[in-house]
Amino acid sequence: MAADTVKSKAEPDYVVIDSGKTSLRDLYTKEDWMAVWMGFFLLIVGLLIYLPNPPEKAAEIPKYNTVMKEEAAKAPFKTIEWHNASSSKRGIRARDQEFGKTIQNFLSAPSGWSSNPLDAVYRSKEAADALSAPFKEAADKAKAAEDTALAAATAAQSAAAAASFKDPALNSTAEKAIKGWQEAKEKASKAKG
Question: Over the stretch 103-134, which tens digit does the pLDDT of each residue have?
């Protein structure tokens, strides 16, 4: 038994023994930590770019909040105006500004291609229009359906407003019509791409 616990002299020196101990030196010498530092660097650069330059429409956020509060107090359901204000508020993004789009173009992954690798990097307006032509009809149909649903929702909400939002049947009809408009709006957005 004692022979089993004794180390063999013939054991090679190139065997790696991992101690499992970490030190502060690992933070700048190990490649795993380098990925973390690079991520922190990218976050800091993003903060330095976007924080001093808030979106141009950021001043309108209080206006949208006011509209949403007024509409919530006015009706027992979310009105068309409430949804429009909410959608406009969600649409305010720093990346939608000109410098944000420029940065996004540099950092985005290349698109796909089938025959020419340059198609992944650059596609002319004519080529893009030719590729999107089959989907234009579906997008137009979805937009027409959205417009029809909006007209129905507006009529239903007006009927509920004429009754001062006191009639539960009219409120329910308006709420369903507005929900249908939101679904049609989402489908139109997806069809548009």
Answer: 887 777 777 777 777 777 777 888 888 878 88
Model confidence pTM above 0.90? no
Residue 102 lies in a domain: yes
Q: Is residue 100 part of a domain?
A: yes
DSSP helix/strand/coil, 16: coil
Decide if 184 contacts 146 (C-beta within 8 A).
yes
Q: How far apart are CA 71 and CA 79, in angstroms?
A: 7
Q: Is residue 103 assigned to a domain?
A: yes
CA nearest 93: which of 150, 53, 142? 53
**What is the DSSP annotation of 23-39?**
-TTHHHHSHHHHHHHHH
106-132 core/surface letters (b: 16 or more CB in 10 A; e: else)? eeeeeeeeeeeeebeeebeeeeeeeee
Range of the domain at 100: 27-55+94-107
Number of domains in the chain: 1
pLDDT at 2 over 70: no
Query: What single-letter amino acid sits at 1?
Result: M
Q: Taking residues 71-87, report their average pLDDT.
A: 93
39 domain residue, yes or no: yes
**Total residue length of the chain:** 193
The phi-psi region of residue 108 (left if phi > 0; otherwise alpha if psi is between -120 and 50; otherwise beta) is: beta
To which residue do tokens 């006011």 refer?
66
